[in-house]
Amino acid sequence: MAEEFATFESFYVESLAIGWILSAIIAIAVGFIVFFTGGTASPIVISIGSWIGSLAGYSGIAATNYGLALIGFGSLATGGLGIAGGIAILTAALTFSTEVIIDYTLTTAINTYNYHKFVDDSKKMLTLPIPQNEDGSSEYEKIVEYLKESIDTEKPLFTESNQKVLQHALDQFKIVTDDSKERIKDYVLRSYLLFVRNRYREAKEDAQKAIELAREQKLRRTLPAFIYAVSTLYEEKFDYDQLTTNYFRYAILAEPDNAFIPLMFAIYLDRLLYRMNDNTDLNHKSLDKVKEIAMEIKDEEIKAQSLMILLMRYFIRIKIEQQKILALAESENDRIKESPKTLDILKRSLEEYKALLVSMKPILHMKVLEEAIKENNQIVIVYAKYEESTHYLEKVVQELEEFQEALHMRIEKEDSATSDIKNISKNMVLIGTGIFLLLLIVIGWRWLVSRNKMS
């Protein structure tokens, strides 16, 4: 095989042995697991995390931390909807309850996109670890060596100290090589540095340059394709189907033995779930598109991890839709209960809730997840409860619709009564005016008659 310059392997090959993936994710997630679970991770969540970790080749606490990092951080993608603890909503989703845990208002239910808020909120989401392969241009080698020496792997990349290291590397890095293939790798490295510095628009530009150069050389370009795909999710408007098919799917399937694939699913899905809170064009079909890609993975262990990561995101989304319905319908705020927007949101959330149930059901019966489902049978039990709860949610929406219809009829009657009173008043004025004019005519006529007699 020709030498690669834009694949995950070409950046992480020295560390693909057991131990690197774990240390990479834990370097990003360390301190995060405890902070965001806050002790609220349920046994089922821990069990699923351990299963994913063991499938990846780890054991004990290492397996649990690895798995929790890949499924727990998806909870941050709720977009700040008023729930404490990053993993709390996943725990709630997998234990099932109709208790309102998200403080929804019409404002949070109808979010508008804000690039800077998204960037800020996603600083603590999972991201890519620093490169390990030092083969490249002299500038490339210098920067990677500096990163490996200076990044504190005991802290997440988002910490101030590590961010300063990344920014210094970015400031020092110059693309000056004349070698066309080394130039590809340099652009990929710079796009990576911009990516982990949360400068997604610039990261996308450099990733595109690397993609174009690699395409000219007929080289695989999985790493820049992935960075491009994730960075595009930060644009206000984009073609999701085209993006997912041409970039994310390519990044996954063009390098099938890539041990980073489960992490790639987690990173992409977290940003996608966040955007689903403000973009009505993104819904269960968007998750289904990712599901189709996961189904194409040949390696069964990687496929199983990816599908389980995706399944957890389905549960998070179904919990969010349930919470929208319950929180808004049970609100004591008259403005919320009486607003037609509320009813519209509830109806759309109910349809999405039903569609999510249909979309996620086949995953529960995948052969590659058979063992995991047996070990964690509560997943099937909880799914069944969400299915059974459909009728209850339909009733909740129907009751609100009937309430608003009754309110509308009452308002119409009040308006009609007010209108009748106004009409009566108007008629009385007209009658009074008519009588007054008639009196004037009579008086005038009598005056004329009296005057004629005197004459």
Structural commentary:
This protein is mainly α and 455 residues long. The chain has one domain (8-392). Helices cover 70% and strands 0% of the residues. It has 21 helices and no strands. It is elongated and about 130 Å long. The chain starts with 7 loop residues before the first helix and ends with a helix.
In brief:
With 455 residues, the chain is mainly α.
Give, in order, the helices and strands: HHHHHHHHHHHHHHHHHHHHH
**Main sheet properties:** none
- How many separate structural domains? 1
- Can you tell me the residue ranges where pLDDT is under 50 for at least 5 consecutive residues? 15-20, 34-39
Cα Rg: 32 Å
| Individual helix count | 21
Q: Which strand-content bin applies to the residues? A: under 5%
Mean pLDDT: 85
Helix content: over 70%
Derived structural class? mainly alpha
Question: Which geometry do the CA atoms define?
Answer: elongated
Count of individual beta strands: 0
